[in-house]
Amino acid sequence: MWFRLKQLLFPNALIPEHFKHKHWPQIRFLAIDLELTSLDVTDANILSIGWVEGQANTIALESCYYNVITTNASLNQSPIIHGLVDDQVAQGEPVQNALQALKSFAETHVWVFHNTDLDMSVLNKVFTKLDISLPKVVTLDTLRIALYQIRKSDNVPAPNAATLTSCRQRHNLPLAPAHNALDDAVATMELAFAQLNQLDAKGQEPLSALTSTGALRVYEASTE
């Protein structure tokens, strides 16, 4: 409870010192995307995970990571939405292997999502279930930046204005492949760089300045 209250009242106080005063071009980012069995956090299982590193408007394609995750949960609409079928999932990677690899980026990178609340809630749930300790994680949400920019221009967001596709279109980014976790991670990183350039083209503001957008948040295991 105190962590959440502190996040609300003193968001900058939670940002680790090694990130707080750096300008965004100095920050190492990790864009992450999850494909899930459900959008309900309590029922959601991870079907696949993808991520890619980036810094200073450059995406490190050699850092791309993608794995299908094995699960016994019902795939629901996943074969239609994500193109993943039972045989692929059965041969997938155990989720703990993927999360151990992801954990190694917790203290060195700012994690970028398009809908941090959903993905971090699921990750937090799975980390806790597997008894994997997760250090404090700094996250940046491209969806929240988009909503901030729309509202700042005195517009009311349209129903689909904050989808990844719509956000990319507003920044004149090309149409990106959808429903593959790695493709979406790369698309999210591209969007993040476009948004950051629009907010601070010269890269002179400290990372902590992004708390004003509502998009920069700090997560601790089992606090959300």
Automatic annotation (TrEMBL):
Entry keywords, A to Z: Exonuclease, Hydrolase, Nuclease, Nucleotidyltransferase, Transferase
Gene Ontology cellular-component terms listed: cytosol
Gene responsible for this protein: dnaQ
UniProt xrefs under Gene3D superfamilies: Ribonuclease H-like superfamily/Ribonuclease H
Top-level taxon: Bacteria
EC number(s) on file: 2.7.7.7
Oxidoreductase recorded as keyword: no
Gene Ontology molecular function, alphabetical: 3'-5' exonuclease activity; DNA-directed DNA polymerase activity; nucleic acid binding
Organism annotation: Aliiglaciecola lipolytica E3
Stated name of the protein: DNA polymerase III subunit epsilon
Domain Exonuclease: 28-201
Pfam families noted in UniProt: RNase_T
